[in-house]
Design a protein that fits this description.
Order of helices and strands: EEHHH
Distance between the termini: 99 Å
Strand content: 5-15%
Largest sheet: 2 strands, antiparallel
Number of domains: 2
Number of helices: 3
Number of strands: 2
Radius of gyration: 31 Å
Structural class: alpha+beta
């Protein structure tokens, strides 16, 4: 007989005496559970974690051409204002 522990509803360890076969099956199931949790944690990342890590996500709705055109327009307006200020 082998003693294994399981956690009850309160999270406390409860030692149970079981046969070798039951202990082996329990260990295999626990390993599958841990492996599954690890895979899920490894392959699942929240956007908040990505942003905190320094990664930035592209906005699919943004139009890059329009953004550059607006920046060029702002530069053009500034240069025109400088020219007008010099003329005064």
């Amino acid at each position: 007989m082998v003693k294994i522990y399981v956690k009850n509803a309160d999270g406390q360890k409860v030692y149970v005496e079981v046969t070798e076969a039951q202990a082996s099956a329990y260990r295999e199931e626990k390993q599958k559970e841990w492996r599954s949790e690890w895979n899920e944690k490894y392959h699942t990342v929240s956007f908040d974690e990505m942003v905190e890590a320094g990664y930035d996500l592209a906005d699919a709705d943004s139009d890059i051409d329009r953004i550059f055109e607006e920046k060029d327009e702002i530069k053009r307006r500034k240069s025109m204002l400088k020219t007008l200020k010099k003329a005064l």
